[in-house]
């Protein structure tokens, strides 16, 4: 999927549209078969393969079903836009595409689904379609690279935030002398580490997706991991949303399960925060928040994901403990000890713990 060429995609688009026109001209209702992918399920069978990149069944779209007509209309309109982007070597965001036909599309999620359907039909990744996400990720630390001829020298200003490139395929000549990569869930934690000059003191690279990471952030992280072969740690809030963000980095998202193998980073290790940290680091009761009903529902749903059961049972145990205790807390709660406790004590200790375990 990663290396597919524009001319091959244009050929596939032509073949697909011609097959629809042929059916219509002969009085047949076209059948559009879309493979379905998933990355988790509730099947604890050891033979479960739901997190593979193999399709799991098909969905057939047809003009004979009224509920499918609008979806096919949207799919073909978006496909026409994609064809134009490829022919003119231009790029557009999903939001750009939505505003080209807002009355027809009615909602951004309609466009998102069409783009995913097209990726599956053409067997490609979203960036192959020249559809890009609006980049929100940030990076700092011991890293230097070029993107479309522009030099990004993070090393000479290792505590300064740089926006992660949207066109990750244009990133070249990556150089780094970092010891590890640290992913943090939130921009506030990223800025805390920048203020504490964490990167220059610890010779590392720090990345944030500002919550749930966009595709560019995940592709950029995957590129760094593949090129630099560094340990990767992830720091998230001790709540179900934090763990879900962690899982998105490591296993991929449901929405883009068809492309998970190019976006996930299986080597990521969970650095924290864990439910047990509230005791280990003496957080006062005032720092703990009760799980809401939505938190509990999300946690229970995550516990049904078979990859937690099979691949990271320790994560599953932490989720069970969170649910049992009925509390959560934010990473910033560690500031109760001191403003720089996170950068000077917590993170170095956590990394030392993991390193010691790996060397046993």
From TrEMBL:
- Alphabetized Gene3D superfamilies for the sequence: 3.40.1360.10, Winged helix-like DNA-binding domain superfamily/Winged helix DNA-binding domain
| Keyword set, alphabetical order | DNA-binding, Isomerase, Magnesium, Metal-binding, Nucleus, Topoisomerase
Q: Which residues form the signal peptide?
A: none
- The keyword Metal-binding belongs to this UniProt entry's keyword annotation: yes
Top-level enzyme category = isomerase
The protein's Enzyme Commission number: 5.6.2.2
A Gene Ontology annotation in the biological process aspect, one of them, is:
meiotic DNA double-strand break formation
Query: Per the entry, which co-factors are needed?
Result: Mg(2+)
List the GO molecular function terms.
ATP binding; DNA binding; DNA topoisomerase type II (double strand cut, ATP-hydrolyzing) activity; metal ion binding
| Active site per the UniProt annotation | 99
Major subcellular location class:
nucleus
Pfam families per the UniProt record, alphabetical: TOP6A-Spo11_Toprim (PF21180), TP6A_N (PF04406)
Question: What Gene Ontology cellular component terms go with this record?
Answer: nuclear chromosome
Q: Which residues form the Topoisomerase 6 subunit A/Spo11 TOPRIM domain?
A: 180-351
- Which compartments does it reside in? Nucleus
UniProt cross-references to InterPro entries, sorted A to Z: Meiotic_Spo11 (IPR013048), Spo11/TopoVI_A (IPR002815), Spo11/TopoVI_A_N (IPR013049), Spo11/TopoVI_A_sf (IPR036078), TOPRIM_Topo6A/Spo11 (IPR034136), WH-like_DNA-bd_sf (IPR036388)
* Record domain Spo11/DNA topoisomerase VI subunit A N-terminal: where: 71-131
Entry similarity comment: Belongs to the TOP6A family.
PANTHER family, sorted: MEIOTIC RECOMBINATION PROTEIN SPO11, MEIOTIC RECOMBINATION PROTEIN SPO11-1
- Identify this protein by name: DNA topoisomerase (ATP-hydrolyzing)
């Amino acid at each position: 999927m990663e290396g597919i060429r524009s001319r091959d995609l244009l050929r596939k688009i032509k073949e697909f549209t011609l097959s629809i026109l042929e059916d219509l001209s002969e009085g047949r209702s076209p059948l559009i078969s879309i493979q379905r992918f998933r990355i988790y399920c509730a099947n604890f069978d050891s033979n479960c393969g739901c997190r593979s990149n193999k399709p799991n069944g098909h969905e057939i779209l047809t003009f004979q079903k009224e509920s499918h007509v609008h979806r096919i209309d949207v799919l073909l309109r978006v496909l026409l836009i994609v064809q134009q982007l490829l022919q003119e070597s231009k790029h557009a965001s999903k939001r750009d595409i939505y505003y080209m036909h807002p009355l027809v599309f009615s909602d951004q999620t309609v466009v998102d689904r069409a783009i995913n359907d097209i990726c599956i039909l053409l067997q490609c990744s979203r960036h192959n379609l020249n559809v890009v996400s609006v980049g929100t990720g940030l990076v700092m630390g011991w890293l230097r690279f070029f993107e479309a001829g522009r030099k990004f020298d993070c090393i000479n200003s290792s505590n300064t935030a740089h926006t992660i490139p949207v066109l990750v395929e244009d990133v070249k000549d990556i150089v780094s002398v970092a010891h590890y990569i640290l992913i943090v869930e939130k921009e506030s934690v990223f800025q805390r580490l920048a203020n504490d000059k964490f990167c220059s003191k610890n010779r590392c690279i720090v990345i944030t997706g500002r919550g749930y990471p966009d595709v560019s952030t995940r592709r950029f992280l995957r590129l760094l991991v593949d090129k630099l072969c560094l340990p990767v740690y992830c720091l998230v809030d001790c709540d179900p949303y934090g763990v879900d963000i962690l899982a998105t980095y490591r296993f991929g998202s449901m929405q883009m399960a068809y492309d998970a193998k190019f976006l996930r980073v299986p080597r990521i290790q969970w650095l924290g925060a864990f439910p047990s940290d509230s005791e280990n680091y003496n957080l006062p009761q005032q720092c703990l928040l009760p799980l809401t009903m939505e938190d509990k529902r999300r946690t229970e749903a995550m516990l049904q994901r078979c990859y937690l059961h099979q691949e990271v049972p320790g994560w599953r145990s932490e989720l069970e403990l969170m649910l049992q205790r009925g509390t959560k807390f934010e990473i910033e709660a560690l500031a109760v000890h001191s403003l720089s406790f996170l950068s000077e004590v917590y993170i170095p200790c956590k990394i030392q713990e993991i390193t010691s375990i790996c060397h046993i």
